[in-house]
């Protein structure tokens, strides 16, 4: 098979799909339908880049992440990693490829084995991939702990002795143990407290700068995504509805769903007048998605065309910003909300805070 | 006194093998009628125990060890159990974070709403209660409430279930609604719907709301007044505008610095170092000092009390306002 190889490209996903058959009835079970969890998703990821997949629950973002790692088998489509289609790899080849792509899970409580010490948890991927001898591995564990802001003595402890933020650092260290090129971060901060979230987000950014990692960053929090990502793909019911450079997507969102998401976020500004257009209803069931454009049932701009024809992703400019909407050319301009500039007292104190922090001895954050 | 609820020096302790720990350590708060008080803090700061204490629902081995909870002129802590039961749900209602676990999966939604109504109105007929329940579902904007009345919780989405919880909580027209992270488990568009709904219902009924959350965005949208809690204490109290425009406590500053903003570019977020201390290993002096960038020797020994620094603005910090120490050093 020929590879669609382009310079600097690490990952290319082409028409990826995952359909689940749904049965009903306990005794005489029969096929009741198909859930198209992921329905023809394509995107590219360059080296050192962060692509964020955002969307609400059930939009297929986590399924996409697992398909990319081939933790589940796709129903259709290809995943090209450095020019090789990993959906056709088998056995040892696939295992070798897994060394290059790792995952950080959402729940730092469930994703670490409570019976293993942190040292054993970090050493396990090294053993699996046959890296180094015992002494080298112990040294590597120490290095990894240092990398994520933990101390060498932490290797002897068990996961329950750590806080949520520290556990997520361990999860990150485990993913980095085998020196991957791609790290899939599946909602890595959404289970953490705000102040801890910020520490972990900072850590992920630092590690990316130091190690040249590429992130596929799954999240539902658009503010975190704005902070982390270079490019953003917005998903709705198994399809990408908008994709593009972060600044373009946030400043000139083209798809009505992206606009909805952006206006729904509560802003930390009590002076803001909330005048938003929130569509009624919930995300429809993926069992029985609406015809045509999946969003038409909640869209203020929907026309007859939207009810019957599925819109394709079309470029909106020459810089890779694409949207899957029949009407994006004729939608009214978005009123981009600007947060009010910070009050002088708050700005001054936050600057002082930043200055003190930069000076402070601790740098684990 | 125009306050519907005023909590004075409330202490709630839990007995553990390691000794008694105080989850709420001397908290004073008040909520005026028709207003929303936002309580902000991270996990373990005592905000949920505070709300359970107000409902007198602290589970053993916890107990309220001191203070007063004045609700509409009577102290809830000295109220006989029967009177408290009559008041709970009727005049003070509560909604929780998890709409999946707060509803009983084996009863229909209608059964559960009418059960709550029945508890406070023994004489009404089933038909009257059903009509009232359907009206309640209608009020929280559930489409086709007559059909939903006979459905089970699993047939509904998360947002729909949270609406049912709100309908149930509001079915007796309470004076005070305590909402403990009501939108945390919901998607962002659904969260926006629920917040809009709560705001509208507050305007219609004039109820007061205590909104417990860790999300400063939600607080900014909903709250009139804000209390920031840390390790069982209120460290800052002010109007919502003052919390964002004139934040005083270093912990408040840290929280504000930790949230990524949508329209600002930062290279790094101003995270707060370390984590909330466990309640059995609280530091001496100011409980925030090990994580505070402004702390000095005095903070390690002196426990700051909440003092007034401006109109309706109180802070518990020896160093506030933080610019004064920098000016003094210069």
Structural overview:
The complex is a heterodimer of chains A (365) and B (330). Chain A has 365 residues and is α/β, with parallel strands linked by helices. Helices cover 32% and strands 21% of the residues of chain A. Chain A has 11 helices and 12 strands. Chain A has helices at residues 61-68, 91-98, 118-128, 134-147, 164-176, 194-211, 222-228, 246-251, 256-264, 304-308, 344-359; strands at 9-24, 30-46, 50-54, 76-81, 84-85, 101-104, 182-186, 214-219, 231-236, 239-245, 314-315, 322-323. Chain A has an 8-stranded mixed β-sheet with strand order 6-7-8-3-9-10-12-11, with helices on both faces. In chain A, helix 6 links the parallel strand 7 and strand 8 (214-219). In chain A, helix 3 (118-128) crosses helix 4 and helix 5 (164-176) packs parallel to helix 6 (194-211). The longest helix of chain A is centred in the middle third of the chain and has 18 residues, at 194-211. Chain B has a single domain (3-91, 172-329), classed as Rossmann fold (3-Layer(aba) Sandwich), CATH 3.40.50.300. Chain B is α/β, with parallel strands linked by helices and 330 residues long. Chain B starts with a strand and ends with a helix. Chain B is globular. In chain B, strands 6-7-8-3-9-10-12-11 form an 8-stranded mixed β-sheet, with helices on both faces. In chain B, helix 3 (109-120) packs across helix 4 and helix 4 packs across helix 6. Chain B has helices at 47-54, 81-87, 109-120, 126-139, 145-148, 158-170, 188-205, 216-222, 240-245, 250-258, 297-301, 322-329; strands at residues 3-16, 19-32, 36-40, 62-71, 74-75, 92-95, 176-180, 208-213, 225-230, 233-239, 307-310, 313-315. In chain B, strand 9 (225-230) and strand 10 (233-239) form a beta hairpin. Chains A and B meet through helix 5, helix 6, helix 7, helix 9 and helix 11 of A and helix 6, helix 7, helix 8, helix 9 and helix 10 of B.
